[in-house]
């Protein structure tokens, strides 16, 4: 993609929005709209059609979680949502990831991390290293799902794809997966793409969540 990402900032703190707008602008990223609460964010998305939304969790009125749900249940071509939070283990962040957000950032993020995150999710990739997402999942998802639930939810996957999903949920990168499974990295990428397609998932973040929610992976992870 040659055009710079188009971003919407949703945060009730003026200083936060101003700081992020200046950081993004300095890196050639266009802020097309700002919102002070979730309802404004939903309307602004419809009006400006940004590529990426930087969404605060805790805002007055309609919060970031509800706004994320509304935005991501829209038509095809919906933007990617990055959740902004002050707390790295905020239960609302997990809920937002489950609703389809592509990851989260802490508000003390560095300028380099902020711009890299926007560009990463704009290309359709997940923002988070799966290991980071796993910290949220381990704390807030249910555990001990029965085998019937596992087979029902993951039935479309082949044994190899189940193996890849389990290792992905432990935080392994494609290169690490390739080394562990003695496969070419391109083959691993193909397996990951098929997992996402079969389960109807947006990205690796949601794949990690599914691995925990179905019981494929527990708190301590599968045997290594």
From TrEMBL:
Gene3D superfamilies: 3.40.50.2300
Species: Streptomyces zhihengii
Organism phylogeny: Bacteria, Bacillati, Actinomycetota, Actinomycetes, Kitasatosporales
Protein name (Swiss-Prot/TrEMBL): Response regulator transcription factor
4-aspartylphosphate sites (modified residues): 56
InterPro entries for the chain: CheY-like_superfamily, NreC/VraR/RcsB-like_REC, Sig_transdc_resp-reg_receiver, Tscrpt_reg_LuxR_C, WalR-like
Source taxon at top rank: Bacteria
Keyword terms: DNA-binding, Phosphoprotein, Transcription, Transcription regulation
Span of domain HTH luxR-type: 150-215
Domain named Response regulatory: residues: 6-122
Keyword Phosphoprotein part of the UniProt annotation: yes
CDD domains per UniProt: LuxR_C_like, REC_NarL-like
């Amino acid at each position: 993609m040659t055009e710079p990402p188009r971003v919407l900032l949703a945060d009730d703190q003026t200083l936060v929005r101003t700081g992020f707008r200046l950081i993004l602008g300095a890196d050639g990223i266009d802020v097309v709209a700002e919102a002070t609460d979730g309802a404004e964010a939903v309307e602004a998305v419809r009006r400006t059609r940004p590529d990426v939304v930087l969404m605060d969790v805790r805002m007055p009125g309609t919060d970031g979680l509800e706004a994320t749900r509304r935005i991501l249940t829209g038509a095809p071509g919906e933007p990617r949502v990055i959740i902004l939070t002050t707390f790295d283990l905020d239960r609302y962040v997990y809920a937002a990831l489950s609703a389809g957000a592509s990851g989260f950032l802490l508000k003390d993020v560095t300028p380099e991390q902020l711009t890299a995150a926007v560009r990463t999710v704009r290309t359709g990739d997940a923002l988070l290293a799966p290991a980071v997402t796993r910290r949220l999942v381990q704390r807030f998802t249910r555990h001990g799902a029965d085998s019937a639930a596992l087979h029902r939810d993951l039935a479309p996957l082949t044994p190899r794809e189940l193996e890849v999903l389990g290792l992905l949920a432990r935080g392994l990168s494609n290169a690490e997966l390739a080394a562990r499974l003695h496969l070419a990295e391109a083959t691993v990428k193909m397996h990951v793409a098929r997992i996402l397609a079969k389960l109807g998932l947006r990205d690796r973040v949601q794949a990690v969540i599914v691995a925990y929610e179905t019981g494929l992976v527990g708190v301590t992870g599968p045997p290594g």
